[in-house]
Amino acid sequence: MMNLYSILACPICQSDVELNGEQIHCTSCKKVYPIINNVPVMLPDWESTNIQHEGELLVRKGYDDWIHRTIMQSFTDNQVVLDAGCGNMALDDPCIIRMDVQLTPYVDVVGDLHNLPFKPNSIDFVCALAVVEHLRQPFVAAEEIWRVLKPGGYVYAECNFVFAYHGYPHHYFNASIHGMQQVFSRFKELRLGVAPYQMPSFAVENILTNYLYLFKAENSYEESFVKAVHKVLKYPLRQYDSKFNQDTAFRVAAGEYFLGLKQVNNTDTIIPEVVIKKYLNNELKIKYTDYLDLTNSENLLIWAKNQGKELHPEIKEYLAKIEPFNKYGNKSQGFERSLPKAISTSLKSVQNNTSIEKKWSIRIFKTLKYQGVRGFAKKAVNYLKKKSGLM
What we know:
Blueprint: H1 4-7, E1 17-20, E2 23-26, E3 32-36, E4 39-40, H2 67-74, E5 81-84, E6 96-100, E7 109-110, E8 123-128, H3 138-148, E9 149-160, H4 177-183, E10 188-193, H5 200-214, H6 220-234, H7 237-240, H8 246-249, E11 255-261, H9 273-280, H10 284-287, H11 300-311, H12 313-321, H13 347-352, H14 356-388
Parallel strand pairs: 5-6, 5-8, 6-7, 8-9
Antiparallel strand pairs: 1-2, 2-3, 3-4, 9-11, 10-11
Helix pairs in contact: 5-6, 11-12
């Protein structure tokens, strides 16, 4: 069974590695990497690396209902996902490798996007959520993603645009959609734009909240200014996101995303050949006009795993013979991936279906992530004072 150690490589010379007790040895440059708490630490200079987050990171139980999650849930059990810059991601799927530059209980490997510790053509999907702004050399990281992706593999990456500085441990770049196109210019662009949680309201809220946190009023005039800014934040900013569409939101968005495909040849795809053959020979071409698009909950791979296997014995046989990838190397540790919800990825429907609870969860998450516990506590106290009429 293929597992994490089957696809690891030296991040310095990209050669094969060997497991030797509690260490990993490069067979070429002889570099030695430790295994700490069963987690390979595959940083080129791990001896001198001490990464500290600016604030305590919130533990996330899963992925947002957005296109990266839909792609993950579309995959078969032998397709490998790399969550690069996973933070504290509690979801532990045997096909999802959680990687970060910091050793935590929520990572499977410690690694750096500038020097990925994986063999060439070994990953099906690289997902980098809110990561690009923290990369010293994003163009180098994009080349590394290209190297480790299989032909036909996908990359989904996000970057801040109109957003305040936040360290992890540093904040190097913000990028527009055109900047993201340049960073990932080698990839075939599938989608580019603003995710629901990157809309202008998040930009306004983030900038003003950070401004107020740093601004120290010293007289009554400045205090009145602070109160005026607080009033702006009381408006239903999320609701006002409906005033923007994808053609306008990108100009003032908190962040933006790029979804691309590694294609050396025009026919490169990670969709199984048996499925492609059925697609080319029947009415599926009408239903799935772009078979490479896995961002919708109704896509060709989802069809193959459900209706397709019932209609076509060849697909059923292929799926039955799949040798699953399991990062643990232990067949007993499986994970039943549920099918994606029948969600629309249109911006309007995502916004309209966002619950009040989810909005508050996002607010709390953003505050903890970018302002730390102290910043969150200060906001909570101010909110309670307002509710009680003390402010």
